[in-house]
Amino acid sequence: METNILIALKNLVKDPVTNLVSRYRGVNRANSMGDALEFYIKDLFCNSLNEENLVKKDEAYSKYFSYLGNQNNPPDIMIKSGDAIEVKKVEGLDAGIALNSSYPKDKLFSDSSMITTACRNAENWREKDLIYTIGVVKEDKLKALWFIYGNCYSANKEVYERIRDKISKGVNELQSVEFSETNELGRVNKVDPLGITYLRIRGMWGIENPIKVFNYVAPVNRNVELSVNALMLKEKYLSFPEKDRKNLEKLVGDKFTIKDIKIKSPNNPAKLLDAKLLTFIK
After folding, report:
1. Mean pLDDT across the stretch 194-201?
2. Measured at the alpha carbon of residue 195, what is the angle toward residues 189 and 198, in degrees to the nearest 5?
3. What Pfam families does this protein's entry cite (predicted)?
């Protein structure tokens, strides 16, 4: 049995939660909003929102996910034979998204140097579509939630790698400095006379909040308790099982809508792409 974003959205529309910390503090011992948000996302995909038994929750996660990651390497979640998910929490509707040493990704590739060996070997895969799941928190409550596919949001990896490689090459061409191999932009060894100090040179990537980037197709509503948007290419939406599409479309009404829209290509803004915008307000 498989899961996908349409199943997660169906579960969210039926059970939208804003006070995540109080919901998950007792069940999962989640003391931070970031942990609680990640538990909520996992439960949405695993149909386990109302499951309070931790053993059964873990069984559900193991049933649907092939990999659950760590804070230092993407992704946070991989769906078995499905998409990868990266969960991010920000403190305001206009706040940018910190990606740290990992540049934005349109897709996740198994040969990426940024992923762990456990992730690479979690299943037989070469590339996965990537969902950025971004929760906006205000006064300890979930105010907005975005599910956005990387190929709607991020340029091709060559765009970022070209910039990274140019910077790394320039740093490594400095004269009279000893460098060593690293996945970062550079590492300088033996900075001091004793030769015991080293300098790590890291990239700190960030990307604008989708609330700001896609305001032209999904204007933010600041007056509702919770707003949820999911954005994907139309061909991606149509690739999901018809049963899942129909089950979700049955929920369309005043609070939940599904629209055909056009968005700017992340690789060429002059080109418009056919997309689906799914919106829920509480």
Report:
1. 84
2. 35
3. RE_NgoPII
